[in-house]
Amino acid sequence: MTEKTVVHFLRHGEVHNPTGVLYGRLPGFKLSTLGEQMAEAVAKSLAERDITHIVSSPLDRAVQTAQPSAAAMGLPVETDLRLIESENWFEGRSVGFSPRVWPKLINPFRPSWGEPYKHIAQRMRDALHDIRDAARGHEALAVSHQLPIWELRLFLTGRRLWHDPRNRQCALASLTSFRYEGTSLVGIDYSEPAAHLGPGKGLGA
């Protein structure tokens, strides 16, 4: 029989961000109280799953989101730089598009304001394959960020990588689960185990 493996990609919970900046890869941005509750809700929803491997983006908010699940399952949280948030020129700035930023918006297909979509998708795919292999025959949990998870999903389903951010199906503390038989991707599932807590704010997530 073909081995069945599932890799759950978890977007981190809500972040404490009182100044409303696009925080990107900046250090020091941790989960809000709501974000902590979201992480706990996810851990409860995964309690009966056959998870044998947990890995996270190295950013604080992602590691924090992984910790309740890791504690409940008695597993360590490994970190993988390939799961990190995308690079973004607007990092550390408040949302707003004054004329001085227009040159950064000239090419939405690459995009011109940050890390190329193709690069994001490829590093996430490579991480996915390594995580899948580490949990072969079982399940794994990988904590990352909205854009990288969405780009991975677009890439693996053969869709174009540039898109309208408003159309991403990747809410805070949501799970995008990739199901494999051997090394063949056979399905992708999506769920929101923390939806009952409210949508939260995902600025720069």
UniProtKB/TrEMBL annotation:
It comes from the Bacteria. Pfam families: His_Phos_1. InterPro entries: His_Pase_superF_clade-1, His_PPase_superfam, PGM_Phosphatase. This is Histidine phosphatase family protein. It comes from Hamadaea flava.
